# Entry
Amino acid sequence: MPVGALLHIQNIEVIYEKVILAVQDISLSVAPQSIVALLGANGAGKSTTLKAISGLASAQRGEIVDGRIEYQGNDITTTPPATLVERGLVQVLEGRHCFAHLSVEENLLTGGFVHNPSRHKLNQLLESIYHYFPRLKLLRKNLAGYASGGEQQMVAIGRALMSEPTLVLLDEPSMGLAPQIVEEIFTIIKNLRDEQGMSFLVAEQNAGAALRYADYAYILENGRISSEGDAEHINQSEVLLASYLAG
Amino acid sequence: MSFFFEVLLGGLLAGVMYSLVAIGFVLIYKASGVFNFAQGSMVLFAALTFVSLLERGISFWLAFVLTLLAMVALAWTIERWVLRKLVNRPPITLFMATLGLSYIIEGLAQSLWGAQVHGLDLGINDEPFEFQGMLLSQFDIFAACVAGVLVLVLSVFFNKTRTGIALRAVADDQLAALAVGIKLEKLWLIVWTVAGFVGLVAGLLWGARLGVQFSLSLVVLKALPVLIIGGFTSISGSIVGGLIIGASEKLAEVFLGAYIGGGIENWFPYMLAMLFLLVRPTGIFGERQIERV
Ligand SMILES: Nc1ncnc2c1ncn2[C@@H]1O[C@H](COP(=O)(O)OP(=O)(O)OP(=O)(O)O)[C@@H](O)[C@H]1O
Ligand SMILES: [Mg+2]
# Structure
């Protein structure tokens, strides 16, 4: 195991509904204060890997049948999601999943409840989210369901940040967004890493954008890791072309 | 004309009684997507427990608190030992489970407290009083005030408290709620407890009106059209649905009864509900999918 890794996955295998093999023999690490990209085409197993880490796979009849996941040196292979959020590991789901009938601010608040903070602390957290996502402050009273795709992605990320995480699992933050918004979101992620010391494991099909901001990258193909390396190195090598991810 | 308003107002007030039962459904349906057929049995169980305690010489408020505790215990048992085992199952499975529960709760109530009919006197004078030439039931006005307070308290709970906001979040998206660290089991327990409390209030009022007996659990059947018209996911919808059902069934009975025979009250609400199903399946206040273009 790499010394001092924040997250370390060893050879996990995930099966849905007892029969559908989604990923196998996945091993990866996330160093403290780093951005790691997990790249792969449709159905490669990116979401499954993230949900295995966050404990959400079991809510969708998925099961880690082999291997082990360590976070901050502790085995979390079977730890439930709420406990992980308390310990600073939170996932932002693919497709944003905002609470459509709650206001933008109420959405953010739900993310802050885990530590049962004081009202004062909760307001401080809100302000720090509005600092990174100024646009959300203007929308705070609006129903999240009516926000634009980019704004909803910001709500989803902001909501996760309200739990003051150490490691954020981001599932396809660029999905369906204009290039300019994608850059905006990745820039904020980079700032969070630099200023707050957070780490991010980002699943993406949009290899170009992700590699511009990531430190390290893994490529998933058909449920297995096919290659890995420094982001710059991966960006310049042939592996992207080989896995239909270039572009 | 004043006779028309007397019937209308009487109907509206009676309708509030249906709303009280419907609110219990809405709470559980919103938070867990379960159509809890056992709500009627919970109403019966609460009323029967309360009355039996009262008859054993226990004071009103002590009996109220003890019954509330019993309802919490019931909610806890149902959540812990039945529903939690059934998460992620299709809605029809959950519905059948609550149907089964409904009879188990009735049986339990019967073996605990016996099957005889009890009178329940809440100490409210039921002599009609006159208001602008109309005769109105004092009891109905009291029930309407109770329902009003209940709705107010619930709306503060859902909009201002952390638990309330979390409950609305769960109603919107369970997976996302899990992802932000909301503990679903804890919330379901709370919502069943609140539904138990609403059941207790409904049980006391209905029990005082009809006497506490086993047919009390049949009030669920009257709550159904209310839910269809108001929408399964809205507490204000329960109130409006109750008012519509209450008013229209009384008006139909009094003004149409002369032409097509009495007993309209028994089927009119269902016909109205069916019309709504055809025209507006989500009910007046039911949540439609928010769609953006
Ligand atoms: N809940 C589920 N039940 C059964 N099979 C599933 C489930 N979720 C995913 N799978 C299967 O597991 C495999 C990996 O899916 P996964 O969603 O992890 O891929 P992905 O890399 O996130 O793809 P995408 O880019 O489309 O989001 C796929 O073959 C998929 O069909
Ligand atoms: Mg995915």
The CA atoms of residues 4 and 31 of chain A lie 7 Å apart. The longest strand of chain A covers residues 20-30. Chain A has one domain: 7-246.
